[in-house]
Every structure is written in structure tokens, then in C-alpha cells.
């Protein structure tokens, strides 16, 4: 039975407001038509998946990109959903097989996939073949590297029986899928690698990833405990530290507040990188990171992923 908890308003002072891509409606229709042809899920499971509405998250997280790029993100978040949902029912060997297929398809998007191969190979090949038309070569390489870490983290999470909070967060950062998604914030930007690797930008990325991790675990706790899934930071705090559910929720909120403060401090003190053009691209990129955090919160309440049709009421309660 779900546990009644008081959700905190973790973004009460977050300066990014909700924004949505004007191409959302059309991209959602196109992405659903594209994804539907693969028939990954049964009709009932497909309906449940559609209610999670990955295209909504894509359009909230990338509100300013054009139609072609919005569509790429919609398809990417469908890919994440397929891998996340399907891997829940797999053993570690099967997940590793899918991970190998995924990475091969990313590296060879122009090569036909073997007929006998699991459908994930053709899904990835089709997605990435479209993406490479609007994503620069530099960003493509970074995306593939981060996606490799993501697939391996999904595999490792299946073998994680227990652990401390720090170890869990180390793994969760890669398992979430936010890192490869963040790479596409720069898909139409030519940020030099030395700038991209700057400590300030790396700190902003990690803060944003961690805030999204904590928010997802906070919002998904009741759904996951109902399924017997203990891969959640709240569950770990209860087991490892003997906390109550509400105590763990409040602790997560405190950690999130610290991360938000750190993000904003770094964001407001970014150095110049020696060129107005580069500085402008960096500003757009880090603004995208801040917006992603807000987008994730909005989607969590507006889709059916965690709260079914009760999201608006739950969100109002958190903000009240």
C-alpha cells in the first residue's frame, strides 16, 4: 500500500520556469508513429507507456530547438523508456546483450541490423541515423561515449543488492540517462572541447544530474516500493540509516537544496572563455542544464509516470 508522505517543493526558488517547445504536438505524433512500428510492447503496455509521454519531457527539456531536433529528442526519450522498462524484466546477461547491440548500432547507423537480432538494434539504428543529420560530429562522439556508460550502469544496477548512498549515487548518475541527453543540449553549438571540459561546466552538469536523480527517486518512491523495487535513495536511507520514510524524504530535500545552491553559485560566476561567441554558446548550454531540472519536475507531475492522473493535485500539495 502506498506510503503517505509530504512531498517538498524542491524547486521553490529555482529561477527557470516551465517552457515547452512549440513543435511538441507534431513531434509527439511523429515519434509515436515511428516508435509504434517496432511493436516492443503489448497494446496494453504500449498504452501505459504512452501515458508516460516521453515526448512531453523532450519538449519541456528542449523548448527552443527546431522541429527536426525536437523530434530527435522525442525519439531518444522513447529509447530510454524502452531500455529502462524492458531491462527491468531481464537478467544481467540479457541486459548486457542489449547493451552490446545498442553500442554497435550507434557506431554503425548506416549498416542494416541482423534479422534475428532483438528489435532494440533497429530502434537505435533508426534513431541515430536521423540524429546524425542534425548533431555535429563532436557531439556525436561525446553522446556515444556517455551512452556507453549509461548502458553499462543499467547492467550494473541489476547486480546491486545493497550499498551506501554515495555508491548508489555514483552509479545512478550514469544509469539515469541524463548525461547522454545533456550532450544534445550542445547539438547545434560549437563549444570547444577545452571549454566543455572546464571545471565550472563539469560541476554544473553533475549538480543537474544529481538533482534530477534525487527528484526522480523522490517522485517514484511509492510506485517503486509497490513493485518491490529497492533501487531508490529513500529506500537506501531507510535501510542503511534507520530513517523513517518522511525523514528520508526530508533528507533528500536538504541534499537537493544544497545542490541547487551550488549550481546557482557556479552559474552566476561563470568565467569568460575569451570570445563573446563562445561565451554566448556556453550561456545557452548551461541555461539548458538549468531548464532540464525544471522540465523533469514538470513532466513528473504532468505525465502519468509516477502519479497517474493525480499529478496536478500532488504538485499543488507540494507547492502549498
Automatic annotation (TrEMBL):
Class of this enzyme: lyase
Cofactors that this protein relies on: Mg(2+)
GO biological process, one term: isoprenoid biosynthetic process
UniProt keyword terms in alphabetical order: Lyase, Magnesium, Metal-binding
Gene3D superfamilies in the record: Farnesyl Diphosphate Synthase (1.10.600.10)
EC id: 4.2.3.-
UniProt entry tagged with the keyword Amino-acid biosynthesis: no
UniProt-recorded Gene Ontology molecular function terms: metal ion binding; terpene synthase activity
Keyword Heme: no
InterPro entries: Isoprenoid_synthase_dom_sf, Terpene_cyclase-like_2
Family statement drawn from the similarity comment of this UniProt entry: Belongs to the terpene synthase family.
PANTHER family: BETA-PINACENE SYNTHASE-RELATED (PTHR35201:SF4), TERPENE SYNTHASE (PTHR35201)
Protein's UniProt name: Terpene synthase
Gene source species: Mycena venus
Record lineage: Eukaryota, Fungi, Dikarya, Basidiomycota, Agaricomycotina
Amino acid at each position: 500500500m502506498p506510503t503517505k508522505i509530504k512531498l517538498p517543493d524542491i524547486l521553490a526558488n529555482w529561477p527557470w520556469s516551465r517552457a515547452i517547445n512549440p513543435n511538441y504536438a507534431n513531434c509527439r505524433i511523429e515519434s509515436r508513429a515511428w516508435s509504434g512500428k517496432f511493436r516492443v510492447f503489448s497494446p496494453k503496455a504500449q498504452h501505459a507507456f504512452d501515458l508516460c509521454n516521453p515526448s512531453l519531457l523532450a519538449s519541456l527539456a528542449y523548448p527552443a530547438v527546431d522541429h527536426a531536433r525536437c523530434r530527435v529528442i522525442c525519439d531518444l526519450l522513447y529509447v530510454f523508456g524502452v531500455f529502462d522498462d524492458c531491462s527491468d524484466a531481464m537478467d544481467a546477461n540479457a541486459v548486457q546483450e542489449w547493451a552490446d547491440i545498442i553500442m554497435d548500432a550507434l557506431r554503425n547507423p548506416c549498416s542494416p541490423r541482423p534479422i534475428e537480432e532483438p528489435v532494440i538494434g533497429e530502434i537505435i539504428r533508426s534513431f541515430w541515423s536521423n540524429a546524425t543529420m542534425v548533431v555535429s560530429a563532436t557531439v556525436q562522439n561525446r553522446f556515444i561515449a556517455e551512452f556507453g556508460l549509461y548502458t553499462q550502469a543499467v547492467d550494473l544496477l541489476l547486480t546491486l543488492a545493497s550499498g551506501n548512498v554515495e555508491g548508489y549515487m555514483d552509479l545512478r548518475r550514469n544509469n539515469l540517462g541524463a548525461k547522454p541527453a545533456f550532450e544534445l543540449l550542445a547539438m547545434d553549438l560549437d563549444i570547444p572541447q577545452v571549454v566543455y571540459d572546464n571545471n565550472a561546466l563539469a560541476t554544473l552538469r553533475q549538480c543537474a544530474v544529481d538533482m534530477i536523480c534525487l527528484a526522480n527517486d523522490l517522485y517514484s518512491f511509492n510506485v517503486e516500493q509497490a513493485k518491490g523495487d529497492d533501487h531508490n535513495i529513500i529506500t537506501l536511507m531507510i535501510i542503511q540509516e534507520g530513517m523513517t520514510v518522511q525523514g528520508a524524504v526530508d533528507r533528500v530535500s536538504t541534499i537537493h537544496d544544497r545542490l541547487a545552491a551550488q549550481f546557482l553559485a557556479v552559474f552566476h560566476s561563470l568565467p569568460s572563455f575569451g570570445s563573446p561567441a563562445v561565451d554566448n554558446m556556453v550561456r545557452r548550454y548551461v541555461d539548458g542544464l538549468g531548464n532540464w531540472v525544471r522540465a523533469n519536475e514538470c513532466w513528473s507531475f504532468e505525465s502519468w509516470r509516477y502519479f497517474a492522473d493525480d499529478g496536478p493535485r500532488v504538485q499543488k500539495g507540494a507547492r502549498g
